[in-house]
Design a protein that fits this description.
Blueprint (H helix, E strand, L loop, with lengths): L1 H7 L5 H27 L2 H7 L3 H8 L7
Length: about 70
């Protein structure tokens, strides 16, 4: 019975990890672009979208590698 529990755990697959790492630069570029766009919004545009300026400022100033 103890072996069945151990068999339920799957080790991370190296290929999957490699694919995730290869996708990171694209994700970072997209994130940086969206944050740059947020910085261009004025107060009226934020209100139209239902966004809080404080939250927008906080999100727009995050580094690209932070989620």
């Amino acid at each position: 019975m103890p072996n069945s529990l151990a068999q339920g755990w799957a080790a991370p697959r190296p290929r999957l990890r490699l694919l995730e790492l290869l996708r990171l630069p694209r994700l970072w570029i997209e994130r940086a672009g969206r944050r740059r766009e947020l910085m261009t919004l004025d107060a009226e545009q934020m209100r139209d979208c239902g966004l809080d300026p404080v939250v927008v400022q906080r999100e727009a100033t995050k580094p690209f590698w932070r989620d």
